[in-house]
């Protein structure tokens, strides 16, 4: 450890009580690891902060000694955003986990960053309200992390992603300002949309200490159906027909043949032989009959492409069964092969069949199984490269690189909802070009002139 | 004119054909005027550009000679965004008015900036698709202007504002880069959300030459109703009950007593005596019965607060009648008093009655009539200060200043959809604070280090 870091740590010790300053290497390892497959890069210390002012104090110390600061919450990210690549101070927001306000009158919630997304959802639903973004990790991930990554989820098809629900933010900049950005009103266009810029900035521009979120009235009824197809192409055709037919379901989730085979292991449904793909669809609204009528209309539309019957869940237990087919996919795929690397490309909707075919072809070329599932309604696909032994990793990385480039070549993106982090930083320029990345670096410098906040994330290191 | 400008103009003359370079003072005046009440500030020249490359050439000339560049399209803005405060070169996008693509498969449109919003809407509707943002000026305003201002409109309540529909942009920066920002896929989180940052940046960060827009399936049925109340407070209570009751209509437009009196002059409806406010509500969807059922449920909810019957339009002609009551308000208010200054504050929904009361009180104090109407569902209110003689203008400006400060004091914003421009730049800091404005200026400098693009807009001049 350098002298600068020692000096910074001494200042932290003077500024924070012992029980909120983590120095134990065993505990620190957990602060430098997330749900990506990138291992642990522990920080030199972690501070369990309780206020924006404390974060400002940490930035002051870090600026004096030029040590990195890394914001950390649930560590459920998939792109390595919390890894302390160059050591430094982890700012753990875990204690800032209060729901500050739920206003049914303004349809607004104010929360601290470490509120768990699922907890907020349950709480607002008790008020008859609805917070739509539903990342798969919602029982673990936090609003702060969702804001950092601009998290999506199946319901994004109808309701949009996190960005659409963040009205305002309080953020601490590396330069020490504590800024209130955005608004509490639903609309507002004064000045630049700094709120939208911070959403999805992966903790590289500022640390969010409070979010003002837009809520909706809760749709009272939901209908869920599962449809099986002979092939991904048939399923993709059905997706297009539904959307062009003027139906906007809240979810349209696709499973390819490998995923379906894995799902079949625990799913309560017996899929017909030759099943090559499935769609999980869901409609919602306030009138039970209307919602049911819509799922039936949707079922009629896709029936012609389907293989066998459309399964419409008739009650809450059946709904849960249908969702479990989707939700435990990740676990079930690991039963096929113990290791996997999951990507989250997104492509224009018309390119879904080709994207899935290309991912499969990449696997075929390299002797790896690739399973694709995801949010077909908005073209966001999780391509999972399955493997058995760590030694296969170089080949797996080659497959991932090919899949990411294929997504870009099809007019899509390297990441639909997981973020760039460390995992995909070497592919950013392939998608955006050198000039756009250079502009992003200039923006980063406008927020963080010393480069102390979360260095090495999003952009390749120079 | 300075020597630098002369030199710049000589370079423009060499670079552009005579018929696309406007120098005539009479014609130039039109390029320096919009629908704000700020008069004309003509540029020294206007270039009718046809490509991004031409805009880059203009930026190169302007950079060499340090002369301002001002993007101009329909000139339907309400905040003075096109005024050439310091002369310079107007980049008129009027010839870049092609719809490049409508893809029903990807639910995407690609357009040039001068496509008129209403023209795009009609065209996508012919494909069974829907572009929701509907600023009142939609028969005149352009997508480029909508992107610059992040335009809203009545349907924003259910469908959101322009930002929610811009997937990607091509923009020319003052430094000469032609950047493709964003994506064609519905989702995508790679790098910073530069697309969202450009939307609403009022033509101060770059000039947009192409936009990729998200489309929706077109809702096939719409139901419209008009409800009269004894007071604004009763109407506001009804708004809250509708939204909390789990109904999200596509519009919830409010008219106060003065607006109603003005509307009564041409409206086909006879409002009951003592009518103090009205709500115009609209629901939409794909099933005619469902849509009608929803408006009836909504009508039942508000009936208890209403004065007299709820008028539900029974056919397209009646729908038009209801909308004309709202749409010709601006004209009808001018029949009460020939002059008016219209503001577009937004407040948290619960503060609507207080905002309207405060605006009225400001008028009372200064001896001016204030009429308020607007998008009550999202708290975006148009407060119109009416007056008779230009000499009253200082008093009117005082009233506007008080109304803008009241909106901020109630937790709202000085502008819900019109933008800051020149009109409200002196109030930006009152809303956002000095530190946020300083950060915005740093971002501006990251895009436009020489400060040549649209100077004097959004930020007070120093």
From TrEMBL, chains A, B:
InterPro entries found in the cross-reference section: FAD-bd_oxidored_4_C, FAD-bd_PCMH, FAD-bd_PCMH-like_sf, FAD-bd_PCMH_sub1, FAD-bd_PCMH_sub2, FAD-linked_Oxase-like_C, FAD-linked_OxidoTrans_Type4, Oxid_FAD_bind_N
What PROSITE patterns would the database entry show? FAD_PCMH
Which Gene3D superfamilies does this entry report, sorted A to Z? 3.30.465.10, 3.30.70.2190, 3.30.70.2740, Uridine Diphospho-n-acetylenolpyruvylglucosamine Reductase, domain 2, Vanillyl-alcohol Oxidase, Chain A, domain 4
Q: Which residues form a coiled coil?
A: none
Q: Which domain of life is it from?
A: Bacteria
Q: Which UniProt keywords apply?
A: FAD, Flavoprotein, Oxidoreductase
Read off the PANTHER family from this record: GLYCOLATE OXIDASE SUBUNIT GLCD
User: What is this protein's record name?
Assistant: FAD linked oxidase domain protein
Q: What organism is recorded for this protein?
A: Anaeromyxobacter dehalogenans (strain ATCC BAA-258 / DSM 21875 / 2CP-1)
């Amino acid at each position: 450890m350098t002298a600068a870091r020692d000096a910074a740590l001494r200042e932290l010790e003077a500024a924070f009580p012992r029980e909120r300053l983590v120095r134990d290497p065993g505990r620190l390892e957990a602060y430098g690891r997330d749900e990506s497959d990138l291992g642990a890069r522990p920080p030199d210390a972690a501070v369990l902060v309780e206020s924006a002012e404390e974060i400002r104090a940490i930035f002051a110390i870090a600026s004096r000694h030029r040590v990195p600061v890394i914001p950390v919450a649930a560590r459920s990210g998939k792109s390595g955003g919390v890894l302390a690549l160059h050591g430094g101070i982890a700012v753990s927001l875990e204690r800032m986990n209060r729901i500050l306000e739920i206003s049914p009158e303004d349809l607004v919630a104010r929360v601290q960053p470490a509120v768990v997304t699922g907890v907020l959802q349950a709480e607002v639903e008790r008020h008859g309200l609805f917070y739509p973004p539903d990342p798969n990790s919602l029982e673990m991930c936090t609003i702060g992390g969702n804001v950092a990554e601009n998290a999506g989820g199946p319901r994004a098809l109808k309701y949009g992603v996190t960005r659409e629900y963040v009205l305002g933010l309080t953020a601490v900049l590396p330069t020490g300002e504590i800024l209130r950005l955005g608004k509490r009103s639903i609309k507002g266009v004064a000045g630049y949309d700094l709120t939208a810029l911070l959403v999805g900035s992966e903790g590289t521009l500022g640390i969010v200490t409070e979010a003002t979120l837009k809520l909706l009235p809760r749709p009272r009824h939901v209908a869920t159906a599962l449809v099986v197809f002979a092939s991904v192409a048939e399923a993709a055709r059905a997706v297009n027909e539904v959307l062009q037919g003027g139906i906007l379901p809240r979810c349209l989730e696709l499973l390819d043949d490998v995923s379906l085979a894995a799902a079949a292991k625990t799913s309560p449904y017996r899929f017909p032989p030759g099943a090559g793909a499935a769609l999980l669809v869901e409609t919602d609204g306030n009138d039970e009959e209307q919602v049911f009528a819509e799922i039936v209309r949707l079922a009629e539309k896709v029936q012609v492409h389907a293989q066998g019957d459309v399964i419409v869940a008739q009650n809450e237990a059946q709904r849960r069964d249908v969702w479990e087919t989707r939700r435990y996919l990740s676990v079930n795929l690991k039963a096929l092969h113990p290791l996997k690397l999951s990507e989250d490309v997104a492509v224009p909707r018309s390119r879904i069949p080709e994207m899935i075919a290309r991912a499969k072809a990449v696997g075929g070329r390299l002797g790896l199984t690739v399973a694709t599932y995801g949010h077909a309604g908005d073209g966001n696909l999780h391509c999972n490269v399955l493997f058995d032994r760590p030694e296969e990793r170089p080949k797996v990385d080659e497959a991932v690189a090919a899949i990411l480039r294929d997504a870009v070549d099809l007019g899509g993106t390297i990441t639909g909802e997981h973020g760039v982090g460390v995992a995909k930083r070497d592919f950013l320029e392939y998608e955006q070009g050198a000039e756009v990345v250079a502009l992003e670096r200039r923006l980063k410098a406008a927020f963080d002139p010393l480069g102390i906040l979360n260095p090495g994330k999003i952009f390749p290191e120079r």
